[in-house]
Amino acid sequence: MNIRKNESQLVCIAKFMAVPGEVDRLIKSLHALIPMTMQEGGNIRYELNQCIDDENRITFIEKWFDQKTFDAHCGTPYITEFFNEGKPLHVKEFEVTLHKELLP
């Protein structure tokens, strides 16, 4: 089996644990990021998901054209505003990991 890495595109998995009682506000603030992000030139996929077993766990699965476009996304005013102002109010903990897609 020949496994190849998609070396240019970047996959980001951003996991958030809501502060107890704040999950609806967290989802609302994350939903607000979607329309602006979908307009970014390097965005391929940007989907928000809620864990079936724990509704306080919210996950973005993102796909970007490359590291450069992802980095530009992270520097946009609406993303920095969320992490500086929204996250402290609604997020108990979070983890962001970056991946490369494995192709057959």
Describe the structure.
The chain has 4 helices and 6 strands. The protein starts with a strand and ends with a strand. It is globular, with a radius of gyration of 14 Å. Helix 1 (23-31) packs antiparallel against helix 4 (77-90). A hairpin with a 6-residue loop joins strand 3 (43-50) and strand 4 (57-64). It has one domain (10-103): Alpha-Beta Plaits. The chain has helices at residues 23-31, 33-38, 67-74, 77-90; strands at 4-5, 10-18, 43-50, 57-64, 91-99, 102-103. A 4-stranded antiparallel β-sheet has the order 3-4-2-5. The chain has a two-stranded antiparallel ribbon with strand order 1-6. The chain is an alpha+beta fold and 104 residues long.
Domains (count): 1
Spans where pLDDT lies below 50 across 5 or more residues:
none
- The assigned structural class equals alpha+beta
| CATH architecture name | 2-Layer Sandwich
Q: Look at the structure and give the CATH class.
A: Alpha Beta
SSE order: EEHHEEHHEE
Helix content: 25-40%
CATH topology: Alpha-Beta Plaits
C-alpha geometry: globular
